[in-house]
Amino acid sequence: MEWLVVGVYSLSLLYIFLFSLGQLHLTWVYIKSKRKKEAEVIYDNSFTPHVTVQLPVFNEKYVVERLLDAVSKFDYPKDKLEIQVLDDSTDETTDIILKKIESLRPLGLDIKLIHREDRKGFKAGALDEGQKLAKGEFIAIFDADFLPHPDFIKKTIPYFKEKHIGVVQTRWGHINKNYSLLTQLQAFGLDAHFSIEQSARSASNSFINFNGTCGMWRKECVDDAGGWNFDTLTEDLDLSYRAQLKGWKFKYLEEVETPGELPVLMNAIKSQQYRWNKGGAETARKNFKQVLFSKLSFLNKTHAFFHLFNSSVFVCLLIAAILSVPMLYIKSQHPHLEWIFDLGIVFIMGFLSITLFYWVAAKRFHEPKPSKSFISLYPRFLMVSMGLSLHNGIAVLEGLFGHKTPFIRTPKFNVTLKGDSWKGNDYVKIKLNAVTIMEGVLCLYFVFGIATGVYLKDMGLMFFHIMLMLGFGGVFYYSVKPTIHA
Q1: pLDDT of 42-76, one tens digit each?
Q2: Which position among 128, 145, 236, 238 bears the catalytic label?
């Protein structure tokens, strides 16, 4: 039994270590790519194809008007622009949309409401319905919590002059980044994905993904790849892989920012994280075999593996965390096995790789004082990530083992300034569930782990256990806080 614990613990750490090396390679590629200034492709009137803008909406009464205001300001020929509001709402959102559309009629926009009574396929189903009716050769997609700039189309459409380009994706910005610690930590993590990961994968011709919003598809590419499928919670990642396996290329524009609103409650963050992590695992289960047997290079297959299975890190982190306490007892009872534990120094390299990954991203987005922001946010970001490992790990396992659940939307708040409040939001359903209770129990478990280290006079895992205690404790606190203060 002891050898089983040691073996599983070591394999979990090994996976985390290999994943971190992949992140280190992406960091190196990103730094190298930044030394080469890529010429910006400028819009000109000789290429003005018909563009359809799709706005998938479900019960978004707090944010849908500002979304429609934003897309109504697109600086693109109106006779070449169509706006589809793909509405699956079951509340007053539909009436709000109809009134807003009428108020925008004087602008001469081709804007229409496509309302479905049957939510089959959820967001993917709505996009599929819009795809069949779309006039445009190209389709831009925006979720309800984003506010694209007027020049979005003019900054993205020129890249489609290259016939092999199937998608142009832009970087997410954050309109409420400084609202709270939770929004700051989300922005910290997302900025690393939208700078290093997406840019490096694009620069190295590896698989990247359409991020579900703030990007534009070539309609032919969507059709050629088999259209929008409903069998995963991340229809965007799934279609991205199917399209690239067909030979389509994706273009990522780091310098083009499309701002959006970050969730302000832990339970909303969890809802979003659950969908992303479970959907990623479902997509990996569905598509990795095709990647493995494709004619791609070994390096591209390796990056695709860690891209598709990146959420599995949460499972390995959770396993390593739970087993780290019995590992202290095993070490104390078998001094002759000390050399096995000493090998753990190798995993410090993994930690340093991840640190460099987020440091480079912090330098990109936290001028003029990146060091101050990094020192303040990075440790807390790691702790919250550790604290989410139970919640996200369950989502990953459900995805890998094919347990199906419905698409759960992330509630939108229209909360952007520090004085804004989410209270009274009809879409927020706050309740104490089993996972949240277990997060509180795990916080106490790692208090026990700290006490065990002190009792056995073994400080080797003390720092790890303190971070886990604070991480699970923090996630538990922010999950139950609204029930206390609502």
Answers
A1: 999 999 999 999 999 999 999 999 999 999 999 99
A2: 236
